[in-house]
Design a protein that fits this description.
Helices cover about 50% and strands about 20% of the residues. It is α+β, with helices and mostly antiparallel strands. The strands form four sheets. Strands 5, 6, 7, 8, 9, 10 and 11 form a seven-stranded mixed sheet that branches. β5 and β6 form a beta hairpin. It starts with a helix and ends with a helix.
Length: about 425
Amino acid sequence: MLLNYIKIAWKVLLRHPFYTFITLFGISLTLTVLMVLTSFLDHLFGTHYPETNRDRSLYIQQMMQTDSSRSSRNMGPMSFRFLTDYARSLKTPERVTICTIFNTSNAYVGSQKIKLNTKFTDADFWQVMEFNFLEGKPYNEQNITNGDNVAVITDDFKRQYFEETDASVVGKDVEIENIHYKVIGVVKGSPVTRIFTYADVYFPYTAPKSNYQKSGLRGGYVAVVLAKEKKDIPTIQEEFQDRVGRIPLPTVQDGFKFSVLEVKCEPYVQNFLSQLLDGGPGLRAIFFGVITFVLFMLLGLPAINLVNVNVSRIMERASEIGVRKAFGAPIRTLLWQFIVENIFITFIGGAIALVLTFVIIKFINSSGWIAYADLTINVNVFLVSLLVCLVFGLLSGVAPALRMSKLNIAEALKS
């Protein structure tokens, strides 16, 4: 029976090319946008190079200090000392790395200025994150203890700074902000969307201008806590909050007296959303408003348009419906037939969308719009797209199918 419904759907598609074009155009365009969006979200939140341990990592990015009346607050990264005392000293994790998000610097090749994003890290950064070293190796605890002026650079910076890009640059000198560093390693760069690993140059935290010796709670550093196993994450969060809860309050820092201190230790997605939602009720309203609008534009409007197209297309088959009802076909059978037909058409549009998505993603990856972009149509993206196809087929098919299946036999035969 299912095969017969599919055959009928195929014949209907060939019968009216114009309706078929409009239907497939609407479906394929909508699903292409959804698949590209899903691919980007996977690129943003998924476990990818070099943050391949993101699924068992916790992120400490922001400290919030609030006064007793909760009318004023200070927010921002923490000091290296605070994270050393309260994060690195945790007993449960496998490792804890402390680093900056990124800073801006300049390097010069002749008269040409190269704008750089630089990052100060500890030695554990290279163990928590899994970079692909194209040349050399990362700096270690000995380099940090000795105060060596060494740096790990990306392949893109190597290409811009050195003339002979094919030759090894390990051991060579780079001058950044009038300070000379010895290149100790070259890595494949991280996409700019992964702020915990993105940079052009990586320095030990003991390098000049790192401000790692700043006292107090606030500073310019964040931490990534790597659990031995995913099941250890709640234990680590509890241990960290227990330590932070022992900080004596109220206290004063930089002239601001606060009595409430909040530092979150969260998985990546929760941490990302916290940065948005902690901005206050206005920012939350804007965020959820944008999400609702985008979903309505991507799913609601195309579904409404396709319902209208499907009603017009099915109305031409009123006589067929009348004949089938006259021979005893129940409403459920007719309803199921139209839904199957619509889902079949939707999957054809989905196949077209899959090809278009592949082309668009390949273009984005090669365009340079996002540095080191690695958007893919992986299993997760494909399964989400498949689910969207089903939902879209149901949304645009149930209403016209229900309407047509309830046609009066006499009226249907007159059509």
